[in-house]
Design brief:
By secondary structure, the protein is of the alpha/beta class. It is 43% helix and 19% strand. It has a single domain (3-119), classed as Rossmann fold.
């Protein structure tokens, strides 16, 4: 089962999306902010990080840069989520080290498709 860290500061979005991804067969660990997420990645391994880019405190942009700068997490794909869906926002996410970008509101089939493209289906074993 693929382990995904889902970092989202909005309680309702975090609960709804994490529940739906769990039902799709993924093991979901959540964090409400970038600082908590960094703490989690220092003690656990993840196949993917889904990262809200517009969080207070440590933004998703800054967190992605930190994750890519660390040897322990540099190879973990990051899927950026943002309510800002301009092409410049996508470019900024990719320039920050994210592997892909998706806009909010989340379209679950599209999101699952992007997850599968990055780490395979929920049924595939982790390596």
């Amino acid at each position: 089962m693929k382990r995904i860290l889902f970092v989202e500061d909005d309680d309702m979005s975090r609960d709804v999306i994490s529940t739906r991804l769990s039902r799709s067969g993924y093991e979901i660990v959540t964090a409400e902010d970038g600082h908590r997420a960094l703490s989690l990645v220092s003690s656990q391994a993840f196949d993917l990080i889904i990262l809200d880019m517009s969080m207070p405190g440590l933004s998703g942009w800054d967190m992605a840069k930190k994750l890519k700068a660390s040897p322990a997490t540099a190879s973990v794909p990051i899927l950026a989520l943002s309510a800002h869906s301009l092409s410049t926002d996508r470019k900024r996410a990719l320039d920050s080290g994210c592997s892909d970008f998706d806009s909010k509101p989340v379209n679950l089939p599209r999101l699952v498709g992007k997850i599968e493209a990055l780490v395979g289906s929920s049924e595939e074993p982790t390596t």
